[in-house]
Structure to design on (449 residues):
């Protein structure tokens, strides 16, 4: 449970999130970017699409760590964090797919062109949707928390294999795969890095902020329902 | 530990031998599934492209494995598990289940391949690599699905849950296995598949390790 509910001003990291995200929006749309054929202005998607994946992987990582902590300490706090972090992770995953589809529409010609990375991330989302179905099928809360934590830990390595190992084995149009240059080749002037790294930090912090809000919301809901 | 594992595998095999109808049921499932594919494609199986031939075979294998592996925890009664829990080590129990399921899947996979090659023509150039790949796939299915079936059994023996939890976890392995199998069908040089084989084995190692560490928690609940 977070302790900042009484205080008026926001925590420093929340202020940092707001500043970083505003900076990302303004700089991401207005700063100069390298002129490249086909990519053109769509290169700006780097500031929005890639941080979504970073935020998702970090949130799902938080979820797995909390699942491990729940199994070792059996504290409800960790179970709640694991679920809500997975929830936020899925939201970022869906946003990542949507921003990727928008970009693919303009550079590859089609929103869904069978790219291995796209397929793998869609399956990755299925893993976590299955996690929520699994949670829904228990009526006993202790069993629910324990067994879903086990599945969470089991699914994470499979998920990492899906999005990091498999796409590298097949030919892919995705930047950074199959011999295509990653973003490092485009921003040799380091100007893009100055927006890209703050964007990653900003969106990841936003993910954690959403998660803490969800946990507080669940705590209040629990309080109203059960009174303790 | 080793003695326990061997005793548990022996127990599973004896149980299988005594309940032959259950094993017969899976064999019938294999035969039925392959025959349905053959009939739905029609008599002109020679017109099938090698990749379609390959894909159909592995989809059949996937469904066989989900049915065969889910049996390992659904078949026995909950009360009997409590008995096992009192006499055996949890880690020995899960390792024995994985080995037993791998043996079962190797057996079923080879029968399925033989029957599939009989009715759908054998398109494989490199039979040895293909059979080795079946062994690899059996190990993968067993390692990934055994824990999933234990989880699904805890959630009230729900077969739908087994499938939806299992599909995403098995998918990376299945895709790699399909790739190796395509290389065997085309008769490509074996050295080209080394990378994929190494990755399948390392994913298996990761999944078995995670299963080994997590099963005691599942067991106690």
């Amino acid at each position: 449970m977070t302790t900042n509910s009484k205080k008026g001003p926001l925590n420093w990291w929340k202020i940092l999130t707001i500043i970083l995200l505003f900076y990302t929006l303004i700089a991401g749309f207005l700063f100069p970017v390298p002129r490249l054929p086909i990519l053109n202005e769509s290169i700006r998607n780097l500031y929005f699409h890639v941080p979504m994946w970073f935020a998702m992987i970090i949130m799902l990582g938080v979820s797995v760590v909390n699942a491990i902590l729940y199994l070792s300490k059996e504290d409800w706090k960790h179970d709640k964090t694991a679920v809500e972090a997975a929830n936020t992770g899925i939201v970022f995953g869906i946003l990542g797919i949507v921003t990727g589809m928008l970009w693919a529409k303009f550079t590859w010609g089609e929103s869904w062109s069978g790219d291995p990375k796209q397929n793998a991330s869609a399956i990755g989302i299925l893993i976590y949707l299955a996690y929520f179905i699994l949670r829904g099928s228990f009526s006993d809360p202790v069993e629910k928390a324990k067994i879903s934590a086990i599945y969470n830990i089991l699914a994470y390595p499979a998920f990492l294999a899906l999005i990091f190992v498999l796409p590298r084995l097949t030919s892919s149009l995705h930047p950074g795969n199959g011999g295509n240059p990653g973003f490092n080749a485009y921003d040799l002037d380091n100007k893009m890095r100055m927006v890209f790294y703050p964007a990653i930090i900003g969106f990841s912090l936003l993910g954690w902020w959403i998660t803490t809000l969800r946990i507080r919301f669940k705590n209040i809901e629990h309080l109203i329902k059960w009174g303790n | 530990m080793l003695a326990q594992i061997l005793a548990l595998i022996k127990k599973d095999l004896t149980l299988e031998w005594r309940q032959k109808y259950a094993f017969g049921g899976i064999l019938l499932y294999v035969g039925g599934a392959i025959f349905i594919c053959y009939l739905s494609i029609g008599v002109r199986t020679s017109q099938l492209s090698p990749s379609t031939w390959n894909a159909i075979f592995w989809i059949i294998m996937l469904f066989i494995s989900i049915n065969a592996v889910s049996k390992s925890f659904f078949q026995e009664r909950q009360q009997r598990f409590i008995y096992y829990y009192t006499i055996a080590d949890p880690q020995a129990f899960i390792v024995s289940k994985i080995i037993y399921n791998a043996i079962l899947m190797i057996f079923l996979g080879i029968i399925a391949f033989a029957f599939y090659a009989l009715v759908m023509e054998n398109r494989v150039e490199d039979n040895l690599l293909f059979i080795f790949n079946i062994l690899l796939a059996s190990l993968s299915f067993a390692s990934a699905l055994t824990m999933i079936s234990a989880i699904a059994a805890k959630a009230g023996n729900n077969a739908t849950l087994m499938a939806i939890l299992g599909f995403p976890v098995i998918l990376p392995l299945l895709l790699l296995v399909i790739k190796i199998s395509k290389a065997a069908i085309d008769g490509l040089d074996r050295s080209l598949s080394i990378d994929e084989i190494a990755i399948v084995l390392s994913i298996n190692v990761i999944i078995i390790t995670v299963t080994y560490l997590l099963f005691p928690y599942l067991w106690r609940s």
User: Anything to note?
Assistant: DSSP finds seven helices and no strands in chain A.
